């Protein structure tokens, strides 16, 4: 399992796609946070990162599918898929190894954004006037959100050998998982159970953690969500094996 994880991670790091994808993510998030008038924290006038944490989930809908689209799709396209599944390793170990490698890359994309926290802390008046607890909770929420989206991406990549199709499927599923249940809860057909519908979506749980309060229910939700998609991926991979 570690061999597959290391192979997958080094394959990512030796590819320009990973650097370009992460670079675009950091560039866009930086422009939105500091330069664009409607979202610039300098125009907002408060020492907080709420705007950043509200924007990143939408960037994740494109960043993470771009990272995960090659997980299994490229294996099939290059003809190495048969060699991979005939190794003396169980299917679930292959899936988890690829999942963790993709998640590490997502973490690599998040680490440089800590400079935003440091900068705003220094710019605050008085210096250090920023809610560190809320920021910590928001970063934990982003990591859990990334874990959930990564499980969707790995699942989507297992469905096809075309990376573009895998990207589109993953982006669509991520968008629906984050926003779809909230919009569906507003329909007349779900009147009376709108709270239940909203609780099925990621947005409500991500928002809850972003307040700086770690609720066990939110943690269980994200873990269950990720495990569910990885389990379905195992079923798909087992059938194709």
What this model shows, in words?
- The chain is mainly α and 241 residues long.
- It has one domain (2-240).
- The chain has 13 helices and no strands.
- The radius of gyration is 19 Å and the shape is globular.
The best one-word shape is globular
- Count of helical segments? 13
Beta-strand proportion = under 5%
Largest sheet: none
Class inferred from helices and paired strands: mainly alpha
Radius of gyration, in Å, reads: 19 Å
Number of domains: 1
Mean pLDDT, rounded to whole units? 82
Q: What string, H for helix and E for strand, traces the elements in order?
A: HHHHHHHHHHHHH
Low-confidence runs: none
List the keywords:
transmembrane helix, Motility-assoc_ABC_perm_GldF, ABC-2_transporter_component, mainly alpha, cell membrane, single chain, 241 residues
Topology:
Blueprint: H1 2-13, H2 16-34, H3 41-44, H4 50-68, H5 73-78, H6 81-85, H7 91-110, H8 114-123, H9 132-157, H10 163-184, H11 194-200, H12 202-210, H13 216-240
Helix pairs in contact: 1-7, 2-4, 2-7, 4-7, 4-9, 4-10, 7-9, 7-13, 9-10, 9-12, 9-13, 10-11, 12-13
The gist of it:
It is found in: Cell membrane. By secondary structure, the chain is mainly alpha-helical. The protein has helices at 2-13, 16-34, 41-44, 50-68, 73-78, 81-85, 91-110, 114-123, 132-157, 163-184, 194-200, 202-210, 216-240.
């Amino acid at each position: 399992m570690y061999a597959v994880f290391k192979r997958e991670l080094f394959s990512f790091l030796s590819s320009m796609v990973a650097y370009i994808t992460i670079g675009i993510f950091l560039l866009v998030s930086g422009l939105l946070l500091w330069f664009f008038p409607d979202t610039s924290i300098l125009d907002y006038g408060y020492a907080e990162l709420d705007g950043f944490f509200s924007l990143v989930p939408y960037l994740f809908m494109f960043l993470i599918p771009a990272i995960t689209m090659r997980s299994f799709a490229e294996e099939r396209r290059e003809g190495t898929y048969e060699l991979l599944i005939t190794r003396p390793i169980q299917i679930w170990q292959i899936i988890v190894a690829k999942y963790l490698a993709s998640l590490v890359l997502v973490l690599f994309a998040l680490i440089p954004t800590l400079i935003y926290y440091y900068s705003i802390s220094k710019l605050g008046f008085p210096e250090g006037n920023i809610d560190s607890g809320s920021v910590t909770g928001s970063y934990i929420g982003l990591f859990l959100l990334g874990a959930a989206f990564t499980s969707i991406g790995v699942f989507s990549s297992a469905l096809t050998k075309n990376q573009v199709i895998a990207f589109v499927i993953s982006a669509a599923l991520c968008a629906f998982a984050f926003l779809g249940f909230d919009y569906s809860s507003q329909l007349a057909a779900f009147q009376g159970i709108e709270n239940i519908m909203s609780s099925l979506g990621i947005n409500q749980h991500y928002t809850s953690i972003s307040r700086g309060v770690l609720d066990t229910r939110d943690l269980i939700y994200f873990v269950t969500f990720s495990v569910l998609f990885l389990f379905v991926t195992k079923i798909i991979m087992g059938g194709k094996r």
